[in-house]
Design brief:
Blueprint (H helix, E strand, L loop, with lengths): L11 H15 L11 H8 L3 H14 L2 E4 L3 E4 L9 E5 L4 E3 L4 E12 L2 H7 L3 H4 L1 E11 L2 E11 L16 H8 L6 E10 L2 H7 L6 E11 L2 E11 L4 E3 L8
Parallel strand pairs: 3-8
Antiparallel strand pairs: 1-2, 4-11, 5-6, 6-7, 7-10, 8-9, 9-10
Helix pairs in contact: 1-3, 2-3
């Protein structure tokens, strides 16, 4: 039965991923038995194959299904993961800088949240806009590769500016130093033009085409922090975490 609500704000692939989770948890899709192919699922659900494949890729990242050579995709028994589930948008990927990475903290300031983050954190009033901002530079063999900017409302992570941000990434800090149970990390990627301030830091031209990777880290009480990575084209690789699905 078609359970997709095309008028809803939730993307179709996320709705479909939830349908597939229910099929696994209910036993409709049994562990170890190949699930129907993407074209078959798309036809039965009256949607596009690309939507089905993206939903399946979400389940792959969650560890709910696995690719078995010669058999296709099969359901797995859910297991806990050391890392949170990643909801990638528009595709799954990771940055590979290569070599030995040096991290420099360029600035740590108390500021106000950018307008685009007010709705993310659902903060209201003047005090709700107060936030910590950390700017970090990643270098490989002395060459600047990535500028990362982190925001967090002052009420979410007390003492955030006092932490040593050179040694650990944001996820490690949330888990090990703040004892937060990070339940989800949402990531979005888009094409970005380098600003004048970033051009001097990254040693490139203003407007140079780049990759912008934005992440929001969620715990049980909601979003804790965001990070934005700016990577000039050609500085590193963007690799697919899961191969294209073909079943």
């Amino acid at each position: 039965m078609n359970r997709l609500d095309r008028s809803a704000k939730t993307p179709l692939y996320r709705q479909l991923a939830e349908v597939f989770r229910e099929r696994i948890s209910s036993g409709d899709w049994k562990e170890g038995i190949p699930i129907p192919s993407s074209p078959e699922l798309a036809k039965s659900l009256e949607t596009q194959v690309a939507v089905v494949e993206r939903a399946l890729q979400t389940l792959l990242l969650e560890g709910l299904i696995s690719i078995k050579p010669g058999r296709g995709l099969v359901p797995l028994t859910p297991t806990s993961s050391a890392r949170p589930v990643l909801a990638w948008d528009p595709g799954s990927g990771r940055l590979d800088l290569g070599g030995s990475v040096e991290i420099r903290v360029l600035s740590k300031v108390l500021t106000t949240l950018p307008k685009n983050l007010l709705s993310v954190f659902e903060v209201h009033g003047k005090e709700g806009h107060r936030a910590n901002r950390i700017v970090k530079l990643r270098l490989v063999s002395g060459k600047p590769m990535v500028v990362e900017t982190i925001y967090s409302p002052t009420s979410r992570l007390p003492g955030f500016l006092m932490k040593d941000h050179r040694q650990v990434d944001l996820y490690q800090m949330l888990v090990s130093q703040y004892r937060c149970e990070v339940v989800r990390v949402e990531q979005r990627s888009r094409v970005y033009a380098i600003t004048s301030a970033e051009s001097s830091i990254l040693e490139t031209e203003v407007g140079f085409p780049s990759l912008c990777v934005e992440r929001v880290y969620f715990a049980g009480e909601g979003p804790l922090a965001t990070s934005q990575w700016i990577v000039p084209a050609g500085r590193c690789g963007l690799f697919e975490e899961a191969s294209a699905l073909s079943v």
